[in-house]
Amino acid sequence: MKTKKSICMLVLASCIGSATLTSCGTLFTPTKQSITFSGNSHATIYDNGRVIARTGDDGMGTAKVSKSLSDKTLIVKKEGYKPTSVELEATLNPVSILNLTNVFGWAIDLATGKCCRWDTEFVEFEMEVQQ
Prior knowledge:
The chain has helices spanning 2-20, 24-28, 103-112; strands at residues 32-38, 44-47, 50-54, 60-66, 72-77, 84-88, 90-92, 116-118, 122-124. By secondary structure, the protein is an alpha+beta fold.
């Protein structure tokens, strides 16, 4: 009888712990978001000096960009052209609102950056020829 009661208490404690230590953004959204770039063909897109995408013959390219609490500036480079910067704006991820008053959920979403998402999933750029 004691064992059955102990198991029930353990299951109940696990359920309560799971409910308070999880967050909606972390459960329902990925850490990275796909962004499609459109512009000059054969351009390279950099995030903090690291190549994240290249555009093809059609001028299109896609990258999975890590979410952040703040806006992010990416640099586009191509030989014979001036480097061009493109901005990704961070906005509130609507899924995080499901945390409501769960302070732990908000803390987890803030720590992982999943309480935000990129405002746009399609970025157009136009590069200037270098003189």
